[in-house]
Amino acid sequence: MDLKSLYQEILNEHNLNPTHKGVTEGASLTLQGVNPSCGDNIYLQLKIDENGIITDGSFNGSGCAVSQASVDMMLDDVIGKSREEALRLASLFMDMIQGKADGEALEELDEAASLKNISFMPARVKCAVLGWHTMQEMLGNGKSAGQGSVSHCEVKND
Asked: CA-based, 20 to 30 A from 51: which of 69, 117, 124, 144?
């Protein structure tokens, strides 16, 4: 199976049969992520225990296949991880999308690494990073309690 076919298969599986789409009862954090340029709109929920470990998570909302699959893959990666580790993985994902990370470093992203070539499709980048940016807002940028709404999705080119 060639790389393009594998990417399409992984993307379709996470879009059509998402593991984490739904509602997390007793979520510690809920935040809306909006991509105003295309209409993707998600509500990300995370349950975090007293040790700072993400014990569960889910998303709801609507959007294109890329946004929905990417947030589902993200949740696969971060459930069971600490806040710090989840933020590190988000940073790695952003580096990958910006073409700053590849090879063995991406193995930590598991199936999310299949989105690497999104960087060559500028119109899809915002879709792929929506869930990751929303999680960064929740865990790293002061949106660490309660509910809120944030419009973001610009990938920063440092």
From this structure: 69
* β-pairing verdict for 29-35 and 54-62: unpaired
Burial class (CB in 10 A: 0-12, 13-18, 19+), 122: exposed
Taking the alpha carbons at both ends of the chain, their separation in whole angstroms is 35
Q: What is the largest CA-CA distance in the chain?
A: 44
Q: What is the pLDDT of residues 94-107, one digit of tens each?
A: 999 998 987 888 99
Q: How far is CA 90 from the centre of its chain?
A: 7
Confidence check: pLDDT of 10 > 80: yes
Are 86 and 78 within 8 A, CB to CB? yes
